[in-house]
Amino acid sequence: MNFNRKQLVILIVCLAALGTAMLVFLSTKKPTKIITPAAAPAATTTPEMPAAIKNPSPKRETLGLSVEKREIEGYTFGTGATRLVFIGGIHGGYEWNSVVLAYDFIDYLTQNPKSIPENISVTVVPSANPDGVFEIIGKEGRFAATDVPTGANAAGRLNANNVDLNRNFDCHWQAQGVWQNKTVSGGTAAFSEPESAAIKKFILENKPAAVIFWHSKSGTVYGSACGGDMLPETAAIMNAYAKAAGYATAPTFDQYAVSGDATDWLASIGIPAITAELKTHETIDWNQNLAGIQALFKYYKK
C-alpha cells in the first residue's frame, strides 16, 4: 500500500493516540483478585460433656471375699464426711429381695447423684453373703427377680460354712444361735467368717455415721443395743426411717433371743444402726424405702 506524505503523518498521529489511550487504560485497570477456596470454619460446637462428669460413677471396691471367694462389693457415692452405709443380703438367697433393693438403690444414686447432700457420702453393699445368694439364684453378682426360684429357700440364709452371718458379730456372741425355732451356727468365734470380718474391717476403717441393714420380712424398722440403752441417735433414725416408709418400729427384735447380731455389735462401738425389714420375701417396697432413705438424708444434712 502506497501512502503520500500527508497520509503517513496522519497514520502516525493516529497510532500514537491509540498507544497513549492503551497506556491510560492499563494504568487504571484494577488487578484481578485471585479467589481461593475458603478454609472450613473452625468448629464452634462444644464437645459433649463426658459421661463421667455429667453423671459420676460410684467408687467400687472389694470389701473382702466370701468363703467360696466371691467378692463382697461396696459402691460409694459422694464425698461428704458424713458416711451412711446400707447393707443388703446378709441372709443371702433367703432374703434375696434385700439384694435387689440394694442394686436398685445403686441405680437410683447413679442416675440422681445430686440427691445426696454435699456433706454426705453413701456406701451400698448389695450382697453381704454372696455364697448364700449363689446357693439359691445360681448367679454371681447382680441378678433379676425373674432369676429367683419360686418360694424362699432357707438353705440360702447361711454362708458356705453353714454359719448364720447375723449370729457371727461380737455382741453376746454364742457358737450356737437361734433362728425362729431352729438352732443355727454362730461360727467358731465372733468374726470367724470372712464375710462378717470384711464388714467389720470396712466399718472400723471408715467410721460411718450410721449403718442400715435391709432384711425381710416384717415391715418393721428395728433399733439396736448391746446390753444397754439404745443410742439416742439410733432411736431418731429408726423413727425417721419408719415414719417416712410407713413401717412399724421396735426398739429391738424380741420374738426370740438373738446373739451375735450385726446392728447390736455396731451399737456396742457407738455407731447408730437399724434394721429395715421389707414386708415380704418377694417385694422390695421401693417407694417406701426410698422415702426412708430420703428421711435419713434430711436428718444428716447440714
Structure summarized in a few sentences:
The protein has about 300 residues and is α/β, with parallel strands linked by helices.
Report on the structure:
With 302 residues, the protein is an alpha/beta fold. The chain has a single domain (57-300), classed as Zn peptidases (Aminopeptidase), CATH 3.40.630. The protein has 8 helices and 10 strands. The protein has an 8-stranded mixed β-sheet with strand order 1-2-4-3-7-10-8-9, with helices on both faces. Helix 6 links the parallel strand 8 and strand 9 (248-250). The longest helix has 24 residues, at 5-28. It is globular and about 45 Å long. The termini are far apart. Residues 20-54 have low confidence and may be disordered.
Low-confidence blocks of residues: 20-54
CATH architectural arrangement: 3-Layer(aba) Sandwich
Count of the separate structural domains = 1
Q: What is the ordering of alpha helices and beta strands?
A: HHEEEHEHEEHEEHEHEH
The CATH topology: Aminopeptidase
Name the structural class: alpha/beta
Separate helix tally:
8
Strand content: 15-25%
The main pleated sheet reads as: 8 strands, mixed
Sequence of strands across the biggest β-sheet: 1-2-4-3-7-10-8-9
CATH class division: Alpha Beta
Radius of gyration: 38 Å
Helix content: 25-40%
Q: Oligomeric status of the shown chains?
A: single chain
Question: How many extended strands?
Answer: 10
Tertiary shape: globular
